[in-house]
C-alpha cells in the first residue's frame, strides 16, 4: 500500500493504523510517525452537504446550560488570561456561537468564523489576543492550512485554546467513540499538539483532558 501524505506535517512516513469495516461505514485511518496525527484519507471524507446536515443536528443553543458547561472546560482555563476589551475570535463557531456569547460576557470584543455558518473571511484578516477552537480541529481536512490560519490571526503574544478529543495511546483507537462521527477526519495526541507548538514557535500546556492552551511568541509566563 502506498503511503499517504500527512495533512499536518506533509510527511509520507505514515502507515495504516486501523481499517474500519462495520455498519457505520468503511473508513481507513492512517498515523503519521513524525507528528503523530491520525487522519482519514480524502477518499473517505463525506461531502460538504452531508457535513452540513450533521452540523445542523448538533444542539448548540447558546442558552443551554449543559452546552455552556461543556464549553467551560476550555474557557475556564482561558479566563484567567482574559483582558476585558481585547479582541477575540471563535474559530469554528458553528450554528449557535455559544462560546462567543460567553466571551462577550467577560468583556471581550468577539468575532466569529465558521466555513459553513459564518463564512466571512474578512474576520481572518485581523489579529486577536484570544482565539478559541472548540470541537473543530477534528473536522480539519487540511490541518496544516487551518493551523497556518490560526497562527496568522493570533497577536504576537496571543492565546489559542483548542478543545478536541485526544488519545495518547493509539492502541485504544479502534474502540474510541470519536472516530465514529463521519465528519471527524483528524485526530490528535499530546505529541501532535506539541509538534504543532514547535512548528509555530508557540508554547503548549495541557491543563485538563482534551484541552490545550497555546501561547504565541514568548515562553509561557505563568
Description:
The structure is a single chain. The chain has a single domain (14-216), classed as Rossmann fold (3-Layer(aba) Sandwich). Strands 5-4-6-7-10-9 form a six-stranded mixed sheet, with helices on both faces. Strands 1-2-3-8 form a four-stranded antiparallel sheet, with no helix packed on it. It has helices spanning 48-56, 65-78, 98-105, 143-153, 190-199; strands at 14-20, 27-32, 38-39, 87-91, 109-113, 128-134, 154-163, 186-187, 202-208, 211-216. The protein is built from five helices and ten strands; from the N terminus they run E-E-E-H-H-E-H-E-E-H-E-E-H-E-E. It is of the alpha/beta class. It is globular, with a radius of gyration of 17 Å. 23% of the residues lie in helices and 26% in strands.
Total domains: 1
What's the CATH first level? Alpha Beta
Let me know the average pLDDT: 92
The separation of the N and C termini measures 47 Å
The fourth-level CATH homologous superfamily is: Vaccinia Virus protein VP39
User: What portion of residues belong to β-strands?
Assistant: 25-35%
| Radius of gyration over all CA atoms, rounded | 17 Å
Strand line-up of the largest beta sheet? 5-4-6-7-10-9
Shape assignment: globular
Q: Would you count the extended β strands for me?
A: 10
**CATH architecture field:** 3-Layer(aba) Sandwich
CATH topology: Rossmann fold
Number of helices: 5
Low-confidence parts: none
Structural class, please? alpha/beta
Query: Percentage of helical residues?
Result: 10-25%
Order of helices and strands: EEEHHEHEEHEEHEE
Largest sheet, if any? 6 strands, mixed
Amino acid at each position: 500500500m502506498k503511503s499517504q501524505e500527512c495533512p499536518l506535517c506533509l510527511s509520507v512516513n505514515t502507515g495504516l493504523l486501523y481499517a474500519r469495516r462495520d455498519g457505520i461505514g468503511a473508513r481507513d485511518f492512517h498515523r503519521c510517525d513524525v507528528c503523530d496525527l491520525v487522519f482519514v484519507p480524502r477518499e473517505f471524507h463525506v461531502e460538504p452537504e452531508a457535513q452540513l446536515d450533521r452540523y445542523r443536528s448538533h444542539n448548540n443553543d447558546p442558552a443551554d446550560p449543559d452546552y455552556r458547561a461543556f464549553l467551560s472546560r476550555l474557557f475556564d482555563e482561558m479566563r484567567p488570561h482574559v483582558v476585558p476589551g481585547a479582541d477575540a475570535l471563535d474559530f469554528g463557531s458553528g450554528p449557535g456561537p455559544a462560546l462567543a456569547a460567553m466571551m462577550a460576557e467577560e468583556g471581550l470584543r468577539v468575532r466569529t468564523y465558521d466555513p459553513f455558518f459564518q463564512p466571512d473571511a474578512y474576520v481572518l484578516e485581523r489579529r486577536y489576543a484570544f482565539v478559541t477552537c472548540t470541537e473543530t480541529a477534528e473536522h480539519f481536512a487540511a490541518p496544516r492550512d487551518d493551523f497556518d490560519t490560526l497562527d496568522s490571526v493570533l497577536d504576537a503574544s496571543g492565546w489559542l485554546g483548542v478543545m478536541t478529543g485526544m488519545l495518547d495511546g493509539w492502541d485504544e483507537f479502534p474502540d474510541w467513540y470519536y472516530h465514529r462521527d463521519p465528519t471527524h477526519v483528524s485526530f490528535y495526541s499530546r505529541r501532535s499538539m506539541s509538534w504543532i507548538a514547535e512548528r509555530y514557535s508557540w508554547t503548549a500546556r495541557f491543563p485538563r483532558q482534551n484541552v490545550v492552551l497555546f501561547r504565541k511568541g514568548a515562553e509561557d509566563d505563568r
